[in-house]
Design a protein that fits this description.
two-stranded antiparallel sheet, elongated, mainly beta, 138 residues
């Protein structure tokens, strides 16, 4: 049987309280941590990602279990380490070829060495790829 809990605030016995609007409106709708350097793309941790597709050197697509309500969500990412010993930070850009809106069911990412924008990026597979989405679920 399905149920419903209605609450305006959550309270922990020692850590304080939090308005539920921050949980409902402020939580990431999807995130992923993956590695493209291994022989096959390795997913280390995800939330709301049904799969991650390796689209070639430095490129991947995160596919969502639950779609976003529209394509105007916040997509952010970061890449690091093209080898086990490198410590340089790199970029991970969400890409959109034809409009300013992203797909509601997937986001394509491009990562690598950066010249300041996704078009100036030299694509490279990275050991650490981190992405997060914030927006409304459908």
């Amino acid at each position: 049987m399905a149920g419903k809990i209605v609450a305006d605030q959550l309270e922990h016995s020692t850590a304080g309280s939090l308005d539920t609007q921050f949980v409902v409106n402020g939580s990431a709708r999807a995130y992923a941590h993956y590695d493209q350097v291994t022989t096959s793309l390795t997913i280390r941790k995800t939330f709301n990602c049904s799969s991650i597709t390796d689209d070639g050197t430095g490129q991947a697509t995160t596919n969502y279990t639950s779609n976003l309500s529209d394509g105007f969500y916040i997509a952010a990412g970061h890449s690091a380490r093209d080898t086990a010993t490198s410590v340089t930070a790199y970029w991970l850009f969400p890409t959109s070829d034809t409009t300013i809106a992203y797909s509601t069911s997937a986001t394509s990412w491009k990562g690598g060495f950066n010249g300041g924008s996704s078009s100036a990026l030299t694509a490279n597979n990275m050991i650490i790829n981190l992405m997060t989405l914030h927006g409304d679920l459908a």
